Amino acid sequence: MKKLLLLITFLTITTLQSRLINYDIRPDDLNTNKHMGITILDSKQLKFKKYKGYEVEELSALAASKKRLYALDDKGKLYTFKIKIKNNKIKKLKLRNIAKLKDKNGNKLTKKDRDSEGLVYVNGGLLVSFEKNPRVENYSLKAKELNKMKINKKLRDIDKYHSDNTALEALAYNYKYGVVTAPESPLKKQNLSYHTLYAKKKTWKFRSNGHITALEFINEDEILVMQRSFNHFTRSRETVLSKINLASCGKKDICKNEILARMNTKDGWNIDNFEGLTKIDGDKYLMISDDNGNFLQKTLLVLFTINEL
């Protein structure tokens, strides 16, 4: 009887603390973790109970620092997790805090200003990019604005975008190029077959494979780009990961778009709406899907590496 009670207690605690469910995104007929230019190390479905009265959903951007993983939703909330990765597996993910982004005066952002989309950890703080009112701002880890970052002048006017929901979806940073960001889809009057990456005073173009949802530097010059598309007729969903070397673009700054992975539900991939990407623990990367607050969709967290060529 005592052993039974101990077992019930253990199972109850495990259930209450459980945040990770094993979930294989690979097609059934793929019997290897390697796919094109990446190796999928682990994938989990995330499920959370309410935290401090908030639903934990719509996670659409990631940034990592040591044992901390930060995430954003598009309503201006910053999530702080403690993460443990061991033996190339996601072992633990514990939610430590949820905070609403605030301006320099400590006021919560208005509905127009809070549409947060891109996230990157820099120098003990977080850079955040926004749609609707396109901009990049520097925040403390406690979600308070520190200062605004200068971005390319072509990106400052929302009227230049196709809609206020296709603005600064993705964000990356390193010391050589500074802030690099991109709209979800090309600006008005631009060739829709090409995307553009924007630093403060420089741009790079590459051929499109969907809407840009995330960016992350691989090294000093190479940047990882996540793109997604959805076919409304077939209901198929696709995520494409590609690598671009900013230092070796051709004439008129047209860059080679080297596709590392193409994952499409019509080919059996069990993917969802991937929007977030971050480098973690050296050569490993995490990507996350936004469930859109829809019970029919899933929040998936995938750990992968880029294969050596």
Description:
The protein is mostly beta strands. 5% of the residues lie in helices and 48% in strands. It has one helix at 2-17, and strands at 20-22, 34-35, 38-46, 61-65, 68-72, 77-86, 89-100, 116-122, 125-130, 135-139, 145-149, 168-174, 178-183, 194-198, 203-207, 211-217, 222-230, 237-245, 254-255, 258-264, 274-280, 284-289, 299-306. The chain has one helix and 23 strands. It has one domain (2-306): Neuraminidase (6 Propeller). The strands form six sheets. Strands 1, 2, 3, 21, 22 and 23 form a six-stranded antiparallel sheet that branches. A four-stranded antiparallel sheet has the order 4-5-6-7, with no helix packed on it. The chain has a four-stranded antiparallel sheet with strand order 8-9-10-11, with no helix packed on it. The chain is globular. β14 (194-198) and β15 form a beta hairpin.
The first-level CATH class name = Mainly Beta
CATH architecture: 6 Propeller
The largest pleated sheet is described as:
6 strands, antiparallel
Quote the average pLDDT: 92
CATH topology description: Neuraminidase
* Continuous helix count: 1
Output the keywords.
309 residues; 23 strands; 4-stranded antiparallel sheet; Neuraminidase; mainly beta
Summarize the structure.
The chain is mainly beta and 309 residues long.
Could you outline the blueprint of secondary structure elements for this entry?
Elements: H1 2-17, E1 20-22, E2 34-35, E3 38-46, E4 61-65, E5 68-72, E6 77-86, E7 89-100, E8 116-122, E9 125-130, E10 135-139, E11 145-149, E12 168-174, E13 178-183, E14 194-198, E15 203-207, E16 211-217, E17 222-230, E18 237-245, E19 254-255, E20 258-264, E21 274-280, E22 284-289, E23 299-306
Parallel strand pairs: 15-19
Antiparallel strand pairs: 1-3, 2-3, 3-23, 4-5, 5-6, 6-7, 8-9, 9-10, 10-11, 12-13, 14-15, 16-17, 17-18, 18-20, 21-22, 22-23
